[in-house]
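re: ur question from yesterday

yeah so i grabbed the chain u mentioned. its 387 aa long if i counted rite. heres the sequnce exactly as i have it in my notes:
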Amino acid sequence: MAQPKDFGFGSEEQMLRDQARKFLKDNAPIEKLRALVAKDHKLAYESPVQPLAWDERVWKQMVELGWTALAVPESAGGAGMKMIAVAALAEEIGRAALPSPLIATLIATCVLRAAGTAAATACLERIAGGDAASFAGPGSEGSWLPDATSITAAASGDGAVLSGTAPFVQEARKAAFFLVAARGAKGVGLYAVAADAPGVKIHPDRVVDLTRDQAHVELDDVRVDGAGVVAVAGAGEKAVAAALPAILTIVAADLCGAAEWQLQTTAEYARVRTQFDRLIGFFQAVKHPIVNVMIDVDRARSLAYAAACAIDTEPADALRLARMAKAAASDAAAFASSRSIQLHGGIGFTWECDVHIYVKRQKHNQFYFGDGPYQRAKIAPLIDHSA
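ran it thru and got these C-alpha cells back, copy pasting raw so excuse formatting
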C-alpha cells in the first residue's frame, strides 16, 4: 500500500500545526524560556536539586486546547487524531524547546493505546482530562524496552505489589501518574501508579538538559489494585513493542523541531553579524555548513513524517521507518548543534547565548530511546538483503 500524498498531512493537521506555532510563539518565546531555565547558571547546576522549571499556566492552556487528548481515542474522550498530527505537534514543541510534560504524556498515551485494556482506557480518560503521565519502562541495563526492567511485581489478589527503581523517568515531578513496567513470575506487566501513592519516592536526576525533568522513581512495596493493571504479566513487552514506532517518531519530531530552530537562528545570525567588513554569511565556510544543516533537517523531517504516516497507513513498515527517522534526526541534531555553536563564534560558547539551551535538549533527545548508531544496528535485521 503506497503512502498517501503529503504523508496524509491535510487541512486538520495544518490547522493544528499553525495553531500550535502561534500559541507557542505568543506564550513560550525564547525570552521566557531563558528566564525559566537559564536565568542563573549556579541555580541550574549547583543547587542541591535541579530546579523544576515550567509554566503550569501554559500547561493548563495546552490541556484546554486539547493537546493532551490528541492521541487519545474518541472512545476514551480524546480527539483520536492521526499520528501525523501528533508528529506535527511534537515538532512544534521541539521548536520551542518547551519545558512541559506533553512529550512524556504522548509517549505514555501510545503505550496505553497499544495495551487496549479497560484499565488502559481509564488512564487514557485521565490524560484526555489533563493529567500528565510518564512511562517508567526502560531498564538500567541499556535496553529501551522493558525487558531489562528492575521493577518486580509480586501478585497480590487481582493486583500486584511493585518494588524496585525505574531509571530515566521523564518529567517525573510533573506527572500525575506513572505507567510502570514491572516483571512478575509470568513476564512483564504494565501498572498505573499515582505519583503520590504510598511508597513512591521521586529522586530528581541532575541532567544537562535544562528543559527537562528526569528522575529515577523508587517503588517501595507499592500496592496496585486490579483497576491499575494496564497489562497483565507477560503482555507488557508486547504493548511497548507495538507502541515503539510511535515513541521513536515523537522523539524524532521533537529533534527536528529543535534543529529547525537552530538552523533558522544561525542563518539569521549570519545575516547580521559582520566580520572583516562583510556579513559572515558571505563566506563559504559559513553558508555551506548552514545549507548542509538544512539538508540534514529536511531529510530527518521527511523520515519522521513518513514514519508517522506508516503508523497510520502501513503499520507493518512503521518500525523500520521510525528507526530510520530517529537515526536521521539524532544525527541531524548533533550536526545542527555543533554548527550553531561554531557559527555563532565566541558568543556561541557563552551562557548568555540561547543556543546552549537547544544544544542540551538535543543531546538529551539524541540518546533518548537510542541514538543514530543504536537505531542503525536495530534497522539492519529489518532490511531485506535478498534484493
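noticed a couple things. Residues 330 and 366 are 5 Å apart (CA to CA). also The longest strand covers residues 159-170.
anyway ttyl
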